Amino acid sequence: MRASSNHWLQPLRSAYEEPWLVAERLRSQGTRVVGVLGWSVPRELIVAAGLAPVRLSARRLYNKNPIDEIGACRADDRLARLAAVLSPPTAAVLQALLDGSLGWLDALVIGRDNESHTRLFYILRELAAQGERLLPFAFFDLLRLPYRTSAIYNRRQARELLCELQGWSGRVADAGRLAWADAQQRELQSALGRLASLRGRVPAALSGSAMLTVAGAAQVLPGEELLEMLAPAQTHDVCGDAGGGPRVFVSGSGLDDLWFYRVLEDVGVNVVGEDHEWGPAALGQPSAAADPLDSIVDRYHYAPGGAARAGLSERVALTALRARSLHADAVLHIAFAHDEAPKWECAELQALLGDMPLLRVQLPYWERRPQMLLDAIAPILEGPSDG
Amino acid sequence: MAELAGVRRHPELDCTREFSRHQRAWFEEVRQRALDGEPFAVLSADSPHEIYRAMDIPYIVLQWWSSVIAAKQRAPAYLRRLVEAGYPDSSEQYNSLALGELLDDDPCSAPWGGLPRPTIIQASVSSDTMRHLFEVWAARSGARFLALERSIDTRICVPECWWEELPTHWEEFLPRQRLDVLHHELIGLIRTLESTTGRKFRETRFVEALHLANEQAEHNRATRDLIARSHPAPASIAETMPAVMIPQWHRGSAWGRDAARILRQEVEARAARGEAACPQERIRLMWLGRGLWSSMGLYQQFHDRYGAVFVWSMYLGLAADGYARYFDGRDPLRALAARFVPMGDELRMPGWSSAWHLKEARLHGVDGVVSFGEDDHFSVLKLEEAGIPVLSIRGENVDRRTWSEQRLTTAIATFLEERVIPMMSQRRSNAT
User: Fold this and answer.
1) Out of B129, B133, B375, whose CB is closest to A85?
2) How far apart are the C-alpha atoms of B425 and A191, rounded to whole Å?
3) Confidence of residue B4 (pLDDT cuts 50, 70, 90)
4) Does the structure show a pLDDT above 60 at B93?
5) Distances B197 to A365, B41, B44, B57, B146 between C-alpha atoms, Å
6) pLDDT > 70 fraction of chain B, expressed in percent and rounded
7) d(Cα B177, Cα B267) in Å, to the nearest integer?
8) Dist. CA B382–CA B108, nearest whole Å
9) Cβ distance of A141 and B92 shorter than 8 Å
10) What DSSP string runs through A178-241?
11) Closest-CA residue in chain A for B146?
12) Which of A134, A153, A315 should one mutate to test binding to chain B, selecting the residue with the greatest count of B CBs within 10 A?
């Protein structure tokens, strides 16, 4: 693995890799922590209600080997039956909820990133009705068609969620707190955008794995802490841990692990951008509105987000545009086997990319198979790079 | 490569043959209207057909057409075309066959001369990939994709007895924001259709369509109740599935209402004469999940050897309980929204579906349940707790790579022998 000399990155990596430590610290300081499943839950609402949002990744639910946990899950007949209708990462969250491994959370909000999340919500609701002891939980039903009717619905959903969150925290999220949380989110997005532009330079001034670490840590750490940690990277051009090899834009499933980028970086590939929901651009460009609730809800409604439930033409057009503007040598399309939505994008994306190669690989969610990734990118490693 | 042949069903009712004949002639008429340049829509089952009917825009229902493709054994070839064009064939098979047919571009081998190119396609975005699939289909066919939202019931406590409350108390029973979003979308849809097709929305015709749909649901309810209480059952699902669903796709028309009445009358007459799908009926079964349209005779395979009859499928069940919406003095368009807001929830939202499955199983005196391709955990729990054994099978109804007649027949026979019959014997000995 390429070693990073960026000291500013170390605490961010720690937050990214061990979110439970962040949660435990916050709880010891008296702040209640809300687990967030998905990119589509407005974190700003949670912050405004005086709670701390920590986004969950199936790979970082607790300090154990998740693959062992899934094996244990399969050994339990009830869990196996419930998990059969869930994607592997969502099944892991269910497993962790039921075996008490998420004791470092005070509550959970599930976002409608995909219908596996919806099914998880249904399962939890049924289990709760049957008397199962669970964390307090809620579901945020973000509609994604780009229409006013959907926008109005989303606002009503946001107000309902806010009521629930205030009940959990015992604090009122008034207009002032909403405006503050909204402004902080915009500031965070701007900071991520500045780092992303460093990564996008030719040659790249920041590695893809460093960028993904920061974007992931931004989903875990309180905003003010994160902004403070990012200050050195914003003021000094000290991020030079990227190489000068081929430039790749990553498309497809949400990659919630640095492993993928590191495998690529180890053979000299630079990940210069991505369109998946763990990347820094998942929420698009920061924008403000007179009413902070409008600003917050529309940010998620119109976000690029992930492939599931998204519009195809808009997404592939944006991906192609970004890949070109970042001078990528190729688009690497990584789809998890269970994740059907990105697979629908390949034909249209290839048509828009023209001569730029679209390299495709389908991977199982849990198993790490570096050779499959390396085989996929072999065409650009073998030939000369224009970057 | 030769396609697999399905098991043909033995006719039980006269009306089904008549309905099938009508459907073929009706499709030819729709096809001709489309070829003549009229607007032509392909609608998902969860689209508001009644609006198209009120505007006299010819339409067909995508899932019905998929069932025709499956019945004509063309599904495997169309799935292959998807893969060849760079699309997955592992999701939304029920909804993607028409796109496969378009890519196949061979009207000679397509069922009934093939689906005309639609000018409008419509679906609610009810899965991770529906929007992608329909956008691809629209781009490749030249149709306009009119998407509708699919909202979720986010309440932590959801009342169960939807089949009792929805027909009349839909306004109070459904969350207001869910009704509002679809109601407002339907207003926008009508405007879009008016401006893009030049057709006019006739309020009188629309209200009439809603009344006719309610009457159709009433006939279906009577048919369902009759089959539920008749031992032996006058018809099996091999017959009621097509006999209910062909008229269902004409919902809101006088023909649809009358066809449901004819089905009811024929079932009533058979029950009165003591005629049955299986006169030696000993076991009553429930089929949870989508129908095996390419092999309808499979449902009748257990009559002779076991006296086992599939008496329930979701098709007649939902036609009886899921569609009626009465709107006396209320906005009929909102009543239509109330029909489609929960569509799918009745079948697959665990709190609702499991309660309904148990209610229907008890109503029909069911001895065993075969669940095919369903998210059925909570239904299985409830049914098994009530002493009704369940066989769960993974599979996708129009994708023959996921099932075969032989495997299904063996699995069901084993289930009957090892679980259903022993439990029935146990019950009988307990009773004596």
Assistant:
1) B375
2) 71
3) very low
4) yes
5) 46, 11, 19, 8, 13
6) 99
7) 41
8) 48
9) no
10) HHHHHHHHHHHHHHHHHHHHHHHSSS-SS-HHHHHHHHHHTTTS-HHHHHHHHHHHHHS-----
11) A145
12) A153
Chain B contact for A119 (CB, 8 A cutoff): yes
What ipTM was predicted for this assembly? 0.94
On whether the CB atoms of residues A341 and A377 are closer than 8 A, the answer is no
Give the structural domain span for B180. 14-431
Residue B1 falls within a domain, yes or no?
no
- CB contact under 8 Å between B133 and A153, yes or no, is no
Residues of B in contact with A82 (CB under 8 A): 377
B190 within some domain: yes
pLDDT exceeds cutoff 90 at A236: no
DSSP states of A291-316: SHHHHHHHHHHT----STTS-HHHHH
- What are A341's two structure tokens? 């939505």
Q: CA dist A336 to A64, A278, A367, B234, B400, Å?
A: 22, 14, 10, 48, 24
The answer to whether the Cα torsion of B155, B159, B160, B164 is positive or negative is: negative
Contact assignment for A347 to B133 by CB distance below 8 Å: no
CB contact under 8 A, A141 and B375: no
If phi over 0 gives left and psi between -120 and 50 gives alpha, with beta otherwise, what is residue B29?
Answer: alpha
Smallest Cα distance from B361 to chain A, Å: 20
Residue percentage of chain A with pLDDT more than 90: 84
Domains in chain B: how many in total? 1
Q: What is the pLDDT of residue A238?
A: 53
C-alpha A323/C-alpha A274 separation (Å) is 8
Q: Which two tokens stand for residue B279?
A: 């006169």
* A309 has pLDDT over 50: yes
d(CA B323, CA B257) in angstroms, rounded, equals: 13
CA A159 to mean position of chain CA atoms: 23
Residue A181 CB contacts under 8 Å (≥ 6 apart), including other chains:
A43, A44, A45, A47, A48, A292, A296
Q: What is the C-alpha separation between A160 and A153, in angstroms, rounded?
A: 11
* Cβ atoms within 10 Å of A238's Cβ, excluding its own: 16
Q: What is the mean pLDDT of chain A?
A: 92
Least confident of A299-303, A381-385, B165-169, B204-208: A381-385
Average pLDDT value for chain B: 95
The residues pairing with B190 across neighbouring beta strands, listed in sequence order, are none
Element (H, E) at B219: helix B203-229
B86 vs A contacts (CB less than 8 Å)? 346-347, 350
Q: How far apart are the first and last CA of chain A?
A: 22
pLDDT at B308: 98
Is residue B2 in some structural domain? no
DSSP-assigned letters across all residues of A1-31: -PPP--TTHHHHHHHHH-HHHHHHHHHHTT-
Amino acid at B348: R
pLDDT band at A235 (very low <50, low <70, confident <90, very high): low
Which residues on B lie below 8 Å from A126 (Cβ)? 350-351, 354, 378
pLDDT tens per residue, range B27-37: 999 999 999 99
Going by their DSSP bridges, the two strands B283-288 and B120-124 should be labelled as unpaired
> Chain B residue with minimal CA distance to A341?
B129
Characterize A68-98 residue by residue with b for buried, 16 or more Cβ atoms within 10 angstroms of its Cβ, and e for exposed: ebbeebeeeeebebbbebbbbbbbbbbbbbb
Q: What is the mean pLDDT of residues B211-227?
A: 98
Cα angle A146, A152, A157 (rounded to 5 degrees) comes to 110
Minimal C-alpha gap between B246 and chain A (Å): 30
pLDDT in tens, B128-139: 999 999 999 999
Q: Do B149 and A145 touch (CB under 8 A)?
A: yes
Q: pTM of the full predicted structure? A: 0.94
- Is residue B294 within 8 Å of residue B71, measured between CB atoms? yes
Mapped onto helix, strand or coil, the DSSP state of residue B107 is coil
